[in-house]
Each structure stands twice: as structure tokens, then as C-alpha cells.
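Incident log, structure service

09:12 report received: a user says their structure output differs between two submissions of the same chain.
09:20 pulled the input from the user's history:
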Amino acid sequence: MISEQRDRRLPWRTRVALRVHLFLCKLCKVYATQIGVVSRVSRVAASAAPEQCPECLPVERKQEIKDALSKGSS
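09:34 re-ran on a clean worker, output below:
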């Protein structure tokens, strides 16, 4: 229900039941907090540099990364 409420508005009874459960269940409360943090961080990261993606890296930088990875696995 925690994840589902991020996608759509839950019926009022379900929302109330979830709030009661979160009040009583500390593990689910921690999970709900973590989901919120991940969601916010993802939004910030996506909006901060939308032009920076693996497909947008210069060929030279891609080769540097490949070289560094192959050195690390040797």
C-alpha cells in the first residue's frame, strides 16, 4: 500500500488503515520514509542534469571508463 499510494490516491478507508498501521509498525514506517527519500533523490537527480546520460558521454570519456574498469578487474 505504501508504494501504491505514490502511484494513485487510495480509497479513504485504505488511507486510514495505512496510517494506523504505520503508527503501530515501526518497520513499515521506516520503509515509508526510505521510499520517500528514494523518490525525492530520484526526482532531484533527474532534474539536475537531464543531459548527462551514458549515451551522451564523449567517446574519449567512455574509453577512459572502460580502461579503468579493465585495470580494476585485472
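09:41 both user submissions now match this output. Likely a transient worker issue. Closing.
09:42 reviewer note: The mean pLDDT is 84. The radius of gyration is 20 Å.
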